[in-house]
Amino acid sequence: YESQKFPLESEDSVLSSTLKQFSTYLDDISSVQQVLAQQFSETMMYPLSKFLQADIEEISTMSEMFQQASHDHEQSLGKYMKQPMKKDDRSRVEVNDELFANRKKFHQTTLHYYSSLNALQYKRKCFLLEPVIGYLYAQRACIQ
């Protein structure tokens, strides 16, 4: 901007020095924005991608296990309900043992599944909000 001649400029014009100072301010603001973008990428996107890859995948596998245990439990319950009461004790005991085992498996799978859901809700509240607050604080500190 120093070599640029403006039509209405006098020899001691402030315009060229002001434009030079303005360009340095723009460079500073641009570098601050680049630092903030880098911080955003490191503090926000990494925890979010980690959350999506690890935790959501775990919940989806737990959901499949829960559905399979529920299906097995319903099948054994149906088999138990179809069992005639006057039939010999041996077949009734076998069906009852199968129902007991499937009910226990269903109960354990349900507890693990709901525990994983509770942990996911806690992580969503705490671990994902913490980087957002940190980023907003860093942005506020850079501006002031």
Automatic annotation (TrEMBL):
GO cellular component: endosome membrane
Coiled coil location: none
Pfam family, one: BAR_3
GO BP, sorted A to Z: signaling
Residue span(s) of domain BAR: 10-139
Protein name: BAR domain-containing protein
Organism: Arion vulgaris
Phylogenetic classification of the source organism: Eukaryota, Metazoa, Spiralia, Lophotrochozoa, Mollusca
